[in-house]
């Protein structure tokens, strides 16, 4: 326990700048258990920017200097993906609390090292920035699934193609959209929240089969279109489709169960269709006369299904502030974490399985062979010829 969280932000880009902005603007939604104590960035131009935005605030151009300064007791890592585990391990080893950005890492072996370090230092907090878990809509969907409001899972389908990115987006940084610099494409950059929510709500699949396209319509080498099939066991299946080349994208999450269906449209509208009895029971009790009436459109479906709809609106920035507040409340008061850092490996595992299935052109276990995945990843890093291979 500590009196207050003194947060250091590592990386003063778009994400880090947004978090810092909450403090700069004295956002009243931030609670009193957290304050901004320092900012770190290895870009020399950011030093002047921080001095302008936060006069007198300590600035560091090396994250190790920040960690050893005694100024902060917690950090958030808004840096390229491969640095998440490196910086996270360094922080935890020094007794500094970690709020890791998503994804937890690029490959499972690296995330496993981070988790192992956190277990060796139980006095430190390891959380992950899954702000979508604070979204009232998805919390409601999870509640419905936990309560079996639509029975047992039979199929889950998520089409999330609203990530359109033109070529200029990829041209802005040499590390972006590379295997050695970013670790992949849409699966490690845009879609980690959905990969987390899918498992948080529906559970982990057992098998994965995926077809990926690399550089579809773009001059990049990583995946920007994904079509994956999931096997949850016991006959339950799923599909996950995402891409960054659809300018008129779709966001639709549909969960089909033995007693109904949940539909989420555009991450804003929730439609719940609950059957009056399990579908198999309704089918069994419908005689031929009922079937004929069904075919002739003479059946009142309201006798079989109850439909409810809800609209959700989340104020700008509230999700991220909620995670920061929860992180601080856990450290100061022992409040339960919204997302324990160990759970960050789930989305990485699923992304790795999709990559590996595509690379090997076959169905793979959800719990991928970490050594095999790393070997295949390093092949692609070597082909790029720009970055060191990973360990």
Automatic annotation (TrEMBL):
<dbReference type="InterPro" id="IPR000683">
    <property type="entry name" value="Gfo/Idh/MocA-like_OxRdtase_N"/>
</dbReference>
<dbReference type="Pfam" id="PF01408">
    <property type="entry name" value="GFO_IDH_MocA"/>
</dbReference>
<feature type="domain" description="Gfo/Idh/MocA-like oxidoreductase N-terminal">
    <location>
        <begin position="6"/>
        <end position="124"/>
    </location>
</feature>
<dbReference type="InterPro" id="IPR052515">
    <property type="entry name" value="Gfo/Idh/MocA_Oxidoreductase"/>
</dbReference>
<dbReference type="InterPro" id="IPR036291">
    <property type="entry name" value="NAD(P)-bd_dom_sf"/>
</dbReference>
<feature type="domain" description="GFO/IDH/MocA-like oxidoreductase">
    <location>
        <begin position="138"/>
        <end position="262"/>
    </location>
</feature>
<dbReference type="InterPro" id="IPR055170">
    <property type="entry name" value="GFO_IDH_MocA-like_dom"/>
</dbReference>
<protein>
    <recommendedName>
        <fullName>Gfo/Idh/MocA-like oxidoreductase N-terminal domain-containing protein</fullName>
    </recommendedName>
</protein>
<dbReference type="Pfam" id="PF22725">
    <property type="entry name" value="GFO_IDH_MocA_C3"/>
</dbReference>
<dbReference type="GO" id="GO:0000166">
    <property type="term" value="F:nucleotide binding"/>
</dbReference>
């Amino acid at each position: 326990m500590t009196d207050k969280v003194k947060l250091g932000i590592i990386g003063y880009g778009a994400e880090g700048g947004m978090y810092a902005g909450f403090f700069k603007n004295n956002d009243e939604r931030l609670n009193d258990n957290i304050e901004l104590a320092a900012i770190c960035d290895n870009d020399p131009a950011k030093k002047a920017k921080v001095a302008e935005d936060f006069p007198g605030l300590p600035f560091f151009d090396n994250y190790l200097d920040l960690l050893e300064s005694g100024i902060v007791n917690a950090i958030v890592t808004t840096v390229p993906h491969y640095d998440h585990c490196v910086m996270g391990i360094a922080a935890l080893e020094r007794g500094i609390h970690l709020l890791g950005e998503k994804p937890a890492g690029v490959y499972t072996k690296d995330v496993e090292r981070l988790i192992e370090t956190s277990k060796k230092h139980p006095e430190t907090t390891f959380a992950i920035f899954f702000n979508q878990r604070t979204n009232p809509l998805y919390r409601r969907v999870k509640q419905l699934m936990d309560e079996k409001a639509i029975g047992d899972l039979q199929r889950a389908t998520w089409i999330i193609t609203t990530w359109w990115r033109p070529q200029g987006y990829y041209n802005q940084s040499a590390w972006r959209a590379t295997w050695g610099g970013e670790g992949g494409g849409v699966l490690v950059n845009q879609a980690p929240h959905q990969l987390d929510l899918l498992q948080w709500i529906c559970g982990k699949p057992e098998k994965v089969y995926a077809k990926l396209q690399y550089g579809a319509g773009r001059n990049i080498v990583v995946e920007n279109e994904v079509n994956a099939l999931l096997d949850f066991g016991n006959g339950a299946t799923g599909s996950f489709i995402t891409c960054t080349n659809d300018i008129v994208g779709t966001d639709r999450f549909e969960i089909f169960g033995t007693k109904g269906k949940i539909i989420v449209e555009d991450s804003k509208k929730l439609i719940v269709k609950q059957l009056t009895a399990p579908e198999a029971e309704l089918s069994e009790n419908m005689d031929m006369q009922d079937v004929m009436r069904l075919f002739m459109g003479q059946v009142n479906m309201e006798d079989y299904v109850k439909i409810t709809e809800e609209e959700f609106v989340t104020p700008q920035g509230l999700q991220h502030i909620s995670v920061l507040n929860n992180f601080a409340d856990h450290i100061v008061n022992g409040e339960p974490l919204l997302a324990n850092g160990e759970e960050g490996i789930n989305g990485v595992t699923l992304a790795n399985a999709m990559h590996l299935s595509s690379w090997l052109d076959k169905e793979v276990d959800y719990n991928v062979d970490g050594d095999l995945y790393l070997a295949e990843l390093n092949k692609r890093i070597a082909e790029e010829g720009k970055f060191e291979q990973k360990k």
